[in-house]
Amino acid sequence: DIQMTQSPSVLSASVGDRVTLNCKASQNINKYLNWYQQKLGEAPKLLIYNTNNLQTGIPSRFSGSGSGTDYTLTISSLQPEDVATYFCFQHNSWLTFGSGTKLEIK
Amino acid sequence: EVQLVETGGGLVQPGRSLKLSCVASGFTFNNYWMSWTRQAPGKGLEWVASITNSGGSTYYPDSVKGRFTISRDNAQNTLYLQMNSLRSEDTATYYCTRDWDLWGQGVMVTVSS
């Protein structure tokens, strides 16, 4: 099974900061990597699919990049409404979620 | 409105069964693979089951294989998850998902005596 490791587990940043979240796969996942945002008490919401494709309706401050085993989600200018837990998800071989990065406002 | 609505959760004793339903609306249900994902309280997400758009093939992780069965009724736009031999570690919120881009609001399943 492919393991997905997210870092950091908790990230505290200020409004307006550029924020980068990381996701590392235990083997090559060929860019089959999605990012989800989950706010407290809500269902996950798809932000980015297949590494760098912005889901319809998602603000352009969110972007994704990566290849092979290493992937990142970037928020170009952190907003208060971005407080959430972010999960990466590989769908290259079976299906595996990362353990999440909790994003807080400093 | 495009949405998924899960029902059927609740409190169940270990070893018993429960069946979840997910009604889809606002899109052509039989065009999409569907899946169930769960989240234990305060924990991360775990894939539970997937089914092809026709219902002809199903997929499960080892943690639920042989105990859970995913199925669908394309005429009724409904996805199901039959859960047998439930264990305390199956306690979670269960989400219905459409091809990983649309999620329902989730339904809570608690396995406890």
Can you characterise this structure?
- The complex is a heterodimer of chains A (106) and B (113).
- Chain A has 106 residues and is mostly beta strands.
- Chain A is 0% helix and 51% strand.
- Chain A contains no helices and 11 strands.
- In chain A, the strands form 2 sheets. In chain A, strands 2, 4, 5, 6, 9, 10 and 11 form a 7-stranded mixed β-sheet that branches. In chain A, strands 1-3-8-7 form a 4-stranded antiparallel β-sheet, with no helix packed on it.
- Chain A starts with a strand and ends with a strand.
- Chain B contains no helices and 11 strands.
- Chain B is an all-beta fold and 113 residues long.
Percent helix of chain A: under 10%
Rough shape of chain A? globular
Count up the helices of chain A.
0
**pLDDT averaged residue by residue of chain B:** 97
The tally of strands of chain B reads 11
Strand percentage of chain A lies at over 45%
Q: Biggest interface: chains and residue counts? A: A-B, 19 and 17 residues
Distance between the first and last residues' Cα of chain A: 36 Å
Return the string of H and E elements of chain A: EEEEEEEEEEE
Order of helices and strands of chain B: EEEEEEEEEEE
Summarize the main sheet of chain A.
7 strands, mixed
Sequence stretches where pLDDT stays below 50 over 5 or more residues of chain A: none
Q: Percent range for helical residues of chain B?
A: under 10%
Distance between the termini of chain B: 39 Å
Count every helix of chain B, treating DSSP H or I runs of 4 or more residues as helices: 0
Strand segment count of chain A: 11
